[in-house]
Design goal:
Chains A, B: Pfam families: Pyridox_ox_2. 2 copies of one chain form a homodimer. The first copy, chain A, is α+β, with helices and mostly antiparallel strands and about 230 residues long. Chain A is built from 6 helices and 11 strands. Chain A has one domain: Roll (Pnp Oxidase, Chain A). Helix content of chain A is about 20%, strand content about 35%. In chain A, strands 1, 2, 3, 4, 5, 6, 7, 8, 9 and 10 form a 10-stranded antiparallel sheet that branches. The longest helix of chain A has 15 residues. Chains A and B meet through strand 2, strand 3, strand 5, strand 6 and helix 3 of A and strand 2, strand 3, strand 5, strand 6 and helix 3 of B.
Chain lengths: ~230, ~230
């Protein structure tokens, strides 16, 4: 991978060093940002009462901090400020169909972030973090929908995780066995791409019929989702 | 959620009990199978040298066992047979756009599987597991592509994880605030669906131009991917 300019490099740590498949690894901060910007759902790994859990949850990123949240009753969020977590964001771009089963694989973009999250308690910082998270997944909705009340804010745990210790892996392109002896087998090989697209808006059945969807939502219909 | 017939119920354990959002939780074995059948990429949570990692990896399921694999050099796979893991499979179906920011959410189908994986060493079982995994992600390719050689088999770690301890969560449908006082705000609310679709086949540039793609691949183009 292109490793980018030195000032946009992520630091190498024991956890972010790429032990294998080095050609897929990257410490380019811009690639980290691009992967986080392209998604809104992460898998949060956290140990709760000795049990390892991998929980899908929504996130937002402001380029230096990842925010994620949940009810204050949530097991994984109550536990995670005390413990190191790993947050992984993955976009699957296609199946790599090689001449041999052994060379089959997946085209993907993935980021892993390591650290100990902190609970955001300052009201102003909490509101800013929730805005970041909301606008990341649903741009335009923070200004359109009703914002959180004091009671709702109190019922929400917001966690902040620094993006300082992170690692990126990317695979793109054709299978790797095009110049191997398996190429003589005469088999088709290539990529079956996977596309994520926003579909047509589905109005809440309880909505008055004349209610029009705002432009910040209608303009997403039919566009790529990652 | 519909909890299904009693004989298709997953057992409740300390880890699979739904602590919150019970209405989204399910112990229906058929729903677990459906979620696993609809995908091929999981997030494997494992502790390696004291570090929690969440690794995206390909899986296959035969309805009672989940298989996943990797190079024998992979850190996470070498460590995981010794330790309990959590494997999570998530399909994102759309953004839930409510009248209030607080009620925003995601429509999704997610399965979490807990257990201690075993390394598959018996050659016949290993071949069967790899076939399951390959056919799960890329149906038709096991019979079409060149199968693993003895050397390739030796270079692959295959892990098996029982599906006995698993938990399912699903959210579908409209936002929850259609009958709240926020409905008086006159805002649009509903769902922005996310569709995953297989795109047009991309032939390996190294392929002789006349090479035709097999029917088991061409028939997937344009179909739903989860």
């Amino acid at each position: 991978m292109d490793s980018g300019s030195p000032d946009r490099q992520l630091p190498v740590t024991e956890r972010t060093r790429h032990h294998r498949l080095r050609e897929q690894g990257s410490l380019d901060r811009d690639q980290l940002d691009a992967i986080l910007d392209a998604g809104f759902l992460c898998h949060l790994g956290v140990t709760v009462d000795g049990n390892l859990l991998v929980v899908p949850t929504v996130y937002g990123s402001d380029g230096s901090t990842l925010y994620f949240h949940g009810s204050v009753a949530s097991r994984s969020l109550v536990a995670s400020p005390a413990a190191a977590v790993c947050v992984t964001v993955t976009h699957v771009d296609g199946l790599v169909l090689a001449r041999s089963v052994f060379e089959h694989g997946v085209n993907y973009r993935s980021a892993m972030i390591f650290g100990v999250p902190t609970m955001v308690t300052d009201p102003e910082e909490k509101l800013a973090g929730l805005r970041c998270l909301t606008e990341h997944a649903a741009p335009g909705q923070w200004d359109y929908a009703r914002r959180p009340s004091r009671k709702e804010l109190a019922a929400t745990s917001l966690l902040a995780l620094s993006l300082d210790e992170a690692s990126v892996k990317i695979r793109t392109g054709a299978p790797d066995d095009g110049d191997s002896e398996d190429a003589q087998l005469g088999l088709w090989a290539g990529v079956l791409p996977l596309r994520a697209t926003w579909g047509d808006l589905e109005p809440d059945p309880l909505l008055p019929p004349a209610t029009e969807a705002p432009a910040h939502l209608t303009k997403r219909v039919g566009t790529a989702a990652n």
